[in-house]
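Q:
Got a chain?
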Amino acid sequence: MKKLIGAVERLFPMPCPLVVGGTMEQADTLAVAWINVVASTPPTIAMGLRESRHTLELIRTNHSFTVNIPRADMADVVDYCGLATGRKTDKFAATGLTLTPSSLIDTPIIAECPYNIECRVTSETQVGAYVLVLGEIVEVHAEQAILRDPDGDVIDIEALDPLCYIAGSREYRRLGERVATAFEAGKRFMDDTD
């Protein structure tokens, strides 16, 4: 028997990146759990931000943002960036996070995050109390240490050790063990007509 728990915003696990808006001269960051890739052609990220967020103002000014994937051991920094307001606090000075120029946009990336995504805003839509921002991915930065093959683009998820957010219980977690290989495990159900 399953219990009905209502229309809740819970999909597990959720990424918990630090999104940066602005420029090297004036930037802000915030933790964003309502975010994901929504298309591959062109590669596009969607995220929901409250209208009141200072980072959203900076994103609108420059029409760009970066998505910075923190390691699990950065939970305290990420949580702080989600709690503090950039209108009153320099989150980079408070946490020791370092901004580094992006390669194709004016919005910087966070050096301490091993995986960074540069995005150009393509559209935004009001969804209830949130603004849904779509951004085309224009470049990705990955530390050599998180690549399976130094000449490739496949990420070693254990080396990345990304921070995940668990809505409802309000917990940060690590990813667990690999249980199957995608695009292989389900083939046992296929027949010649599939």
Remarks:
- The longest strand covers residues 115-127.
